[in-house]
Amino acid sequence: MLNQLDQIPTGLLDLDATELHDVLGGPTLIELDGRRKPRIFVSVLMHGNETSGWGAIQKLLRKYQTTPGQVDLPRAMTLFIGNTLAAKNNVRHLLEQPDFNRVWPGSELPQCEEHGLMEQVVDIVTSESLFASIDIHNNTGLNPHYACVNNLNAPNLHLAALFGRTVVYFIRPVGVQAMAMSSYCPAVTLECGRVDSDYGVTHALEYLDACLHLSELPTHAVAPHDLDLFHTTATVKVKPDVTFGYQGSNLDLELPGDLERLNFTEIEPGMRFGRVRHDDLRAIAVCDEYGKDVAEAYFEVNDGELRTRLTVMPSMLTPDVEVIRQDCLCYLMERFPLPATA
Known about the structure:
This protein is an alpha/beta fold. The protein has helices at residues 20-24, 52-63, 84-88, 113-125, 154-161, 177-181, 198-213, 295-298, 321-326; strands at 3-5, 28-32, 39-44, 65-67, 70-71, 77-81, 130-137, 146-149, 166-169, 187-191, 228-238, 244-245, 253-254, 272-276, 284-288, 299-302, 305-308, 313-315, 330-335.
């Protein structure tokens, strides 16, 4: 069930992300008026343990709060607070739940109640024109702050560049919020580093505040010196029946303890990604952005060592084995030229 509100419940901005479910009871959409339209759509807590977005929203709304429950925003905003139950348990999602950022329109996951929930959210927020859509996340591994886009038009790239120089373009995984919303307005996903870094909250706050004050998004091409654009070419997953970890004996796949240091680093062929029990690639699945199996193009096994075959740049490598199991081991990227025109 989707809760719909037109003001901030009393005391909500004082709550930790783990406390939201007991007050809201589930996913909640809050429509807030502002001095300018069209409105901005902001989503937080698509993953329950990625809380920088909620921290930024608390600070932002406190800044513009006039009376309890009311704010005077520079631009109207609709806020979607996602997986409150997972946030209560400080996990990405519960075992019985799907990933909330894989069930938006366009999803390839088996049909479930959450698909209907996200379709309802999209129908409501797109019933009027939108200025931009912003979905805020964290990483569990060492990654820079960066924005993701699913469309390379100029307004999207300008919206992303406002967050920082590093921008990632991807078309897979599907069913993500930004991909669904990019059909209606410029849309970005913000990756705000680790949850334990205060800068993630500060950076997201400054970005949201800047977006609320924008009068328009440029339609001219982004200057090449304004951002570094990367393209996600493949997703690496550990197969469901494979035992894996960062240390220990008798594992199908043993990962190096410092693997996350390779994030956003261009690595040469032959880099060691782990040690495998079997002298082949059966431990991993590697799919390109069209769903094609490309494991043999990117990796090989020599004497039990899993090594790269191509020059690649990983992202999202993490020491959190639960996140690896629920999502992926990493994404593989390449540098990508900016579009010459809008």
